[in-house]
Amino acid sequence: MSNPSVSILELLRRVRAIAQNGLAYSEGYFDRERYQELYDLSTEGVATLSGVEPSVLFIPDDDKTGYATPKVGSRGALFRGNEVLLVRERNDDRWALPGGWVDVNDSPSEAIAKEFIQETGLTVRPYHLCKIVDGGKRNRLSLHHVYTLIFLCEYLEGELTPSYETTEVRYFPIDQLPELSISRTSPEYIATAWAHYQNHVVEAEFD
Question: Which of 42, 98, 149, 162 has the greatest number of beta carbons closer than 10 A?
Answer without folding.
Answer: 98
